[in-house]
Design a protein that fits this description.
The structure is a homodimer of 145-residue chains. Chain A contains six helices and two strands, in the order αααββααα. Chain A has helices at 4-17, 27-34, 38-50, 75-79, 107-123, 126-130; strands at residues 54-57, 63-66. Chain A binds a DNA duplex (30 and 30 nucleotides) through α3.
DNA sequence: CGATATTATCATAAAGATGTCGTGAATATA
DNA sequence: TATATTCACGACATCTTTATGATAATATCG
């Protein structure tokens, strides 16, 4: 449903949002914490910085931090940088034209389904994910939960 | 949401299911009809044959036909040959363990969403798609609607 | 049988996603 | 200023998906 890259981004942001007082975390620590290749995660983090979702600081004690309030950050804003979730949705049957007024036989059912998914991503914020979440065994190298 | 390959398969099967008295259609005609590269579609059709969804006949007047009743063929059976839809679902946040009893913070919401998608594919049959469907402009090279 | 039509299969190429490496630029600290 | 630390960025490597092409196998029909 999501590309690996998008999922990596999601994990990283969620982990960062759990840092006490939003302290910066180094890319390598983050990579170890969320089990993503160090250098690849670097690129993803960089994309998130350019999108204004994260801030980065270089040099000693530097790292990455959330740039926005978790409650104001939807999962869609993160995921949309890497995957196409709702926009430009294609007709399931590949019809060039498929709309409410000229629908293919599955249009309504499919739309209802796709809308459901999109709502999940638009309505769920990182703040929602924060609440009451415990972390799995492998994720404790950084205290991020 | 679906890979290109899975969508191609879906289109081809739907088109075949519309053939009057299930007459065989050549791969090249089918390819033109659903706008998929000829040779690539060949492989996809072959996969569908091996899965028992289509029958193929070689030689003159040969081609591909549905091997089952449209009403007995769910979209999942087609799509599952190329994509993983419901099974082996991963935790959105990448937790190694994520279950009903030990859920991550988004588990329930996400599960509800993913279940919804899966039900769409399991519950919708090719027969459902057949009913009352008109085809788009580019799809008429073969009378398949 | 011989000619033709059509799928089956294998080899390979092109494109995209994923992952690695090295060098440069910015920052903190001494 | 010098040094260590850390992100920025571009080049490259690998793997998967998508696509192409050539040849073999099989069926029809005269």
């Amino acid at each position: 449903m999501l590309s690996g890259t998008a999922e990596y981004a999601l994990r990283a942001v969620v982990c960062l949002s759990r840092q006490p007082n939003h302290a910066p975390v180094r890319a390598s620590d983050l990579a170890a914490s969320v089990s993503v290749p160090r250098n690849y995660l670097g690129k993803i983090l960089h994309d998130l910085v350019r999108a204004g979702i994260l801030k980065s600081t270089r040099g000693k004690n530097g790292g990455f931090q959330l740039a926005v309030e978790p409650g104001d950050l939807s999962l869609l804003q993160i995921v949309t940088l890497f995957d196409q979730i709702g926009e430009r949705r294609r007709c399931l049957l590949g019809r060039p034209e498929c709309s409410e007024s000229d629908p293919c036989p599955v249009h309504h059912r499919w739309k209802e389904c796709a809308d459901h998914v999109q709502r999940f991503f638009t309505d769920t914020t990182v703040g929602d994910v924060l609440d009451g979440g415990s972390l799995g065994p492998g994720e404790t190298s950084i205290p991020c939960g």
